[in-house]
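Hi support team,

I've been running sequence recovery on a batch of backbones for a student project. Most finish fine, but this one hangs at about 90% for roughly twenty minutes before it completes. I'm not sure whether the input is malformed or the queue is just slow. I've pasted the structure tokens below so you can try to reproduce it. Let me know if you need the job ID as well.

Thanks,
M.K.
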């Protein structure tokens, strides 16, 4: 809104040229979202509590989690509201990639909201049926991937695959890229959802990944910096930095309320949307493989569930004490705070490794 209303006046007031710069708008987008969450967070938490949107705790989980029963869920509404408010103020909506990301975020958030609503209000622990949830995720992912395939920012690189530590594209996937992009988006959405089981874990890791992707989108959208680093230049990626900055600010603010002991949980409303955002941004910036490294903790959490389920069906035995992986370490005796801190430390290390790949050769 500010960009479209105020920037045209730069011909009369030269200082308004600041609104042209991604760095300026990103900084204020982050601050706006952070302040929004800190100011309205408690109000929204009380509102969620009054609507009886409360978390149901599994009986099979760690016994320490029973004390969390009744904690308001659907806190993802706080995050998404802050991001939406901030990006409306600071975003440049003439950029199709930004508009597409906002629409996809709302759709993933709506799916998560429906899942949380069914669990909390209708008291159906399974939420939205798995097949229906997967079908909805597939529909959103297919729409995003198809639009990126048909209307790419850089046609020469639209269907190419880039690998960390290698400057040039290693493979052109052609139309198969649409399927590949869908898998990245769906996988990312579900990975964050599976990781959301401890106070501050999913949002802390998301904050690390988002800040790293924010740096990458800024570099990818700057033609000079992209050429210097020899990474694919994608003009529309620059505006994604503003969105990611808003998300980083909102995530930091949400961590204030979600840190142990949590006053609110993000629920599927937040986790499905946040995971979808990470996958979509990775696809838009040609960092699909890099996301696997950057989101290594998310990947490990997902693999632990797949391995546990597969091995149990095969041998009727369990490899982990409980899946996802964070519960395994809890049952081994690690305090919840230690699991979260150590997983986030690993996330920071992976982020440093990913940033190092930008100029490794």
């Amino acid at each position: 809104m500010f960009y479209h209303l105020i920037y045209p006046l730069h011909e009369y007031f030269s200082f308004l040229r600041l609104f042209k710069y991604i760095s300026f708008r990103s900084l204020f987008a982050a601050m706006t979202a952070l302040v929004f969450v800190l100011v309205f967070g408690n109000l929204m938490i009380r509102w969620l509590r009054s609507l009886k949107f409360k978390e149901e705790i599994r009986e099979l989980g760690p016994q320490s989690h029973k004390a969390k029963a009744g904690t308001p869920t659907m806190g993802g509404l706080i995050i998404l509201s802050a991001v939406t408010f901030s990006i409306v103020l600071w975003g440049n909506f003439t950029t199709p990639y930004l508009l597409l990301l906002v629409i996809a975020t709302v759709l993933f958030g709506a799916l998560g909201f429906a899942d949380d609503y069914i669990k909390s209000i209708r008291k159906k622990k399974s939420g939205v049926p798995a097949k229906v949830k997967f079908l909805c995720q597939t529909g959103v992912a297919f729409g995003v991937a198809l639009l990126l395939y048909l209307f790419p920012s850089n046609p020469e690189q639209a269907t190419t695959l880039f690998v960390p530590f290698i400057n040039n594209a290693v493979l052109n996937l052609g139309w198969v890229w649409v399927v590949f992009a869908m898998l990245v988006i769906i996988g990312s959405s579900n990975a964050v959802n599976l990781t959301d089981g401890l106070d501050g874990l999913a949002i802390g890791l998301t904050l690390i990944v988002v800040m790293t992707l924010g740096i990458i989108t800024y570099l990818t959208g700057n033609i000079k910096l992209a050429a210097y680093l020899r990474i694919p230049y994608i003009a529309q990626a620059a505006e994604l930095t503003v969105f990611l900055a808003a998300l980083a600010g909102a995530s930091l603010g949400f961590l204030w309320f979600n840190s142990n002991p949590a006053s609110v949980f993000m629920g599927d409303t937040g986790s499905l949307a946040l995971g979808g955002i990470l996958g979509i941004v990775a696809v838009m910036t040609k960092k699909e493989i890099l996301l696997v490294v950057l989101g290594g903790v998310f990947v490990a959490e997902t693999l632990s569930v797949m391995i546990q389920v597969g091995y149990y069906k095969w041998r009727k035995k369990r490899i982990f004490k409980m899946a996802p992986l964070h519960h395994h370490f809890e049952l081994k005796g690690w305090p919840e705070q230690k699991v979260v801190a150590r997983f986030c430390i690993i996330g920071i290390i992976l982020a440093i490794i990913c940033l190092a790949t930008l100029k490794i050769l």
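--
Follow-up from support: It reproduced on our side and the slowdown came from queue contention, not your input. Residues 229 and 359 are 6 Å apart (CA to CA). No action needed from you.
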